Amino acid sequence: MKFSVGQPVKRHEDLTLTTGKGRYTDDISLPRMAHAYVLRSTVAHANLRRVDASRARTMPGVLLALTGEDVRKDGLGDIPCMHPLTSRDGKARYDTPRPVLAIGKVRHVGQPVALVVAETLAQAKDAAEAIEVDYETLPAVTDGRDALKPGAPQLFDTIPGNLVFDWDNDMCDFKATEAAFAKAARVITLDAINNRVVANSMEPRNAIGDWDAATGRPVLYTGTQGSHFVRDTLADGVLKLPKEKVRVVTPPNVGGGFGMKAFLYPEQALVTWATGKLKRPVKWQSERSEGFVSDNQGRDHFTHAELAVDERGKFLGLKVSLVANLGAYLSPLGPFIPTRSSDLLCGIYTTPAIAINVKGVCTNTVPVCAYRGAGRPEAAYLMERLVDAAARELGMTPDAIRRINFIPPQAMPYTTATKVVFDSGEFEHVMDLCMKAADWAGFDKRRQESERRGKLRGRGMATYTERCGGGFPETASIEFKGDRVELVMGNQEYGTGLVTSYKQLVSDRLGIDADRIDVVYGDTDRSPRGLTGGSRALPVAGTALHDAAKEVIAKGGQIAAHLLEAAASDIEYGGGEFRIVGTDRRIDLFAVAAAARDPAKLPKGMTPGLDTTNTRTPTANTFPNGCHIVEVEIDPDSGVVAIDRYTVVDDFGAVINPLLLEGQVHGGVVQGIGQALHEHTVYDDSGQLLSGSFLDYTMPRADNLPFFSFSTHNVPCTANPLGIKGAGEAGAVGSPPAVINAIVDALNRKAGIRHIDMPATPRRVWEALHLHAAAAE
Asked: Are 226 and 491 in contact, with CB atoms under 8 Å apart?
């Protein structure tokens, strides 16, 4: 059926998935496939005196037993960090060499120490137990602040004081900020922790290496967010091969990523290396417990912030000092997360002067990389908590202080003190709509009812923005295959509904049934370079599709005019047909595509074929924004927080599919609630992970959540022809500060408590209430 843009179309992907016909990496079974097991470090910090795999190599079924010495002997490269950065002293950031198997030292629990490949997984596990590892255990440090203290354990001899970089945001005017603080009527301060989280995608990571004898090259099957991003680093950085000598294939289905599956991991390199040695397939599949100690983790910031205001509550200046715990090694995007998005600490306010310093620190923990929002949730959390703290100190309501500081619509385009350029947005109006939908005026009545039942009720507001739709180019092709169309994309579908969105967009533009459209992606031999992340898919790749469709119609119109013996100016297009205006003479798009393959049927000098490829290079970022309002009810006897009401109004610009859009917001809100109330990655002093399973790491469940009230007030952006701003991360950006603001509101009314860190677990809430009461006595 034809589906126009704007219709709430159900996902085309779901029938396959709900009938068990999906194809994930673990579904791939190749002839003579061997199985790999990774032996991981059991200590957080140690010198490796000896790693002896000789006995393992003699055990039944064992094909390979590889250690760091084999990595060194074969000349494999380290997994690189791809983001350069210059510290404020003018020196480049330090590097943290990360071999695919530990050489000389281990720096976090879970770091790969050896690889065993055997005929069966059981044999590989048995052999791994026979590997002798002699650890010289060293003191560990897991907190970024502690890592900077004199005498802290040093992870790298080449990185003094564990300080990987000390970076001042060069978009900021530090002198102007000092001047703003000098004239402030009041300065509000806040120390906040953005807690470390584990991505916990539905499908754990995996990798299958295979050897293509015909081309003499390895093939890697693995769940990714973009096959080229894994292939390029694997080939250039680790295997030291030309890119075309390595093929990476991501199966049609990937069970979630959230940024965690965007880049190369040691295990992907290990199976590719092993398959090259054995010339047969090698499979590795992560167990859930492995994911806790090897998947890139998220967040983990400690921030001190100061907000200067005048006597009316108008923001004059903002100072932020941030310590980012990067983990034991720089992930491919590790330094990017806390630095690149720090400019969004401006929020959607007119703060005229801002100064930001970020210190990146290495610790004996799993590396940190992109996790849903990748820096934008961290920025929004800090700013929205600080704004609420300012309102409370100034005796203002949360909406009043925001109202006088919002960037007004008439100021667009508006350049912030951090050089962010907003092109559109009606921030106050969105807040007003959210307040109305949330029944802001009826809160006091609901609070009194909660008090009659012995409960504390609090209300929290958070406005937010995030940055999407920029970065590197995306390429899209429209190719005709008989009576069908293939859309060849660089983006990878991993549960976001991209297949449906792309079909819907092209069905609308070309007027053909969506059931005649196939979407191809995930193979470096077939698809172009691209990455799904940062809500870039529709603003960037979707625009490339839009422009490709326009080119198809333009070229097809010339061919149709030639076939119909008419002037090109007399041809119109609609409903999948080219027509001579004012007549009943017409020709189907697919007939034109078939004719286009025959040079004899084309206008003179025209290149055969109607297939079209378009590359979109973003010219500007987009800025989704919105308002979240939450009401919580707290049991003071147990500290349990229940979310009673949750209201969201968002501005996402133009909308392709409102049903998918709402689903993305719901998912993001749930992840944000998970971080705010439940999820916490906890290490002990020795670097052992204490929250390494679902028994100890609390994921949000259905009974933790209310029904959501969601609506939009969409103002099209000017950054792309579609007017799309992006929506994938928005829920995770706005929800943590809204939830914590609501909790603090309830605690402040009861006990004058000004702040509580995430996650606001029952124990933490109970202690805040009762320890405060004890101190008051």
From this structure: yes
